[in-house]
Amino acid sequence: MTQPIKDSIKAFIIENFLFGDTAYDLQDDASLIENEVIDSTGVLELVAFIEDRFDFVMADADIVPANLDSVARIAAFVAKHTQEPARNKMSA
Fold it and tell me: Where does the signal peptide begin and end (predicted)?
């Protein structure tokens, strides 16, 4: 079930941080920070994308490498939060 999430995240990263370079071999479990794909400003852009695309608000405590340092980690984090009851989502 995380494949569509993973595909969406990967497309965002390729478009926004790799400037559309589809030749870059972006592995699902590769560190985005260690491989210099994103920096601290990029993390903020990524958080904004996640919140907008997947319709939930990330807590400050969730903005850590354990959740955001690879496509696989991001997809797992998003899948977990999009499957939680609606009471955990911020209402508009």
Answer: none
Question: Which residues does 37 contact at the CB level (< 8 Å), separation at least 6?
Answer: 13, 17, 18, 26
Q: How far apart are CA 35 and CA 68, in angstroms?
A: 13
Tokens of 6: 């993973």
DSSP state of 26: -
- Rounded CA-CA distance 21/7 in Å is 15
Q: What is 3-86's CATH number? A: 1.10.1200.10
Task: Give the residue carrying structure tokens 């991001």.
Answer: 74
pLDDT in tens, 38-91: 999 999 999 999 999 999 999 999 999 999 999 999 999 999 999 865 444 444
Long-range residue pairs from 16-22, CB within 8 A, at least 24 positions apart, any chain: 16/42, 16/45, 16/49, 17/42
